Amino acid sequence: MNDSMQNEHQGMEIGVYTLGDLVPDPYHGETISSRQRLQEMIQAAKLADEAGLDLFGVGEHHRLDYAASATSVILAAIAQATKRIKLTSATTVLTTTDPVRLFEEYATLDLLSNGRAEIIAGRGAFLESFPLFGYDLNDYDELFMENFELFQQLNHQEKVSWQGKFRAPLQEAEIAPRPVQPQIPMWIGSGGSLVSAERAGKLGTGMALAILGGAPNRFQALVEAYRETGIAAGHKPSELKVAITGHGYISSTTQQSKDEYYPYYANYRQYVDKQLGGSAPKLSRSDFEQMTSPETALFVGDPQLIIDKILHQYELFGHQRFMLQLDVGGIPFSKVAQSIELLATKVAPVVRKETGHAVTKPNA
């Protein structure tokens, strides 16, 4: 059964993702080890798989305050602990990754997982991979397009001849191993850039749109531009899939969710601001209350509020996938596990039922 048929009957795909950040706990200031963080990521994926979620993603960073740099290795470990959940990068920094090596790694992951590997490609929030791997940020656009085009050629051919600007040419190179799937599915991640949305449409990939807060309707123009550009480039509407990603936390009541999540989310916001060179004060509780109000894109609340927010976004975007990051700011694994269980057992069944009648947004 292909993805379009699957979505038509089952509705929206629901999943979770992690960046593997190593943030001091706001209560006692201790930071768990990279080893423990990786083990918790595997446990989270196993729980998501057993609870019936559709996707698990792992992001890529190359910093001491993140445990996830080798995403294909982590996902390969997860593949051995899970049975059916799709495994995706979230995101792969395609501009600073050799496409041949990337294809080999994810084709191997696809074999180990029996056809569950996917890639979300993008730039990411940090730029440390450019000097680390010897690339110039000024070449970003050229690098992305060259690496994308080569990767897709590798995706379709067992032997490849190719010549570009940034790496050695290939002459009848054997590209191995070959994945279980006909091709490794490729999505392009966007943090709100019109350029990246139009690029995804032109290339005919899926688009994973990160909406981390605020009013979601401000992203409608990006989704429309993505679909319009894709159709103009000759791609079928059914091929132009949208995934929405965001931050969240779920508990039995909305008040409990906000009370439990606020210290960790405020911690996360302040820590990331510091990572990016800022010095913003700690997020106030009143600002947090506004950020978690029913009309915003921060998914903090009881299962019904999360359902309402997802379905509101579905009315705006008609998307096929939704993924939450649940583990920011040093939040304990027990609380992450609680959110995964509620997302899988209380939220996902309702959302799938409500969105199961259509693959794409009407008149998209």
Automatic annotation (TrEMBL):
It comes from the Bacteria. Residues 12-316 form the Luciferase-like domain. Signal peptide: none annotated. The keyword Oxidoreductase applies. Keywords: Monooxygenase, Oxidoreductase. GO terms for molecular function: monooxygenase activity; oxidoreductase activity, acting on paired donors, with incorporation or reduction of molecular oxygen. One of its GO terms (cellular component) is cytosol. SUPFAM superfamilies: Bacterial luciferase-like. The keyword Coiled coil does not apply. This is LLM class flavin-dependent oxidoreductase. It comes from Paenibacillus lentus. The lineage of its organism: Bacteria, Bacillati, Bacillota, Bacilli, Bacillales.
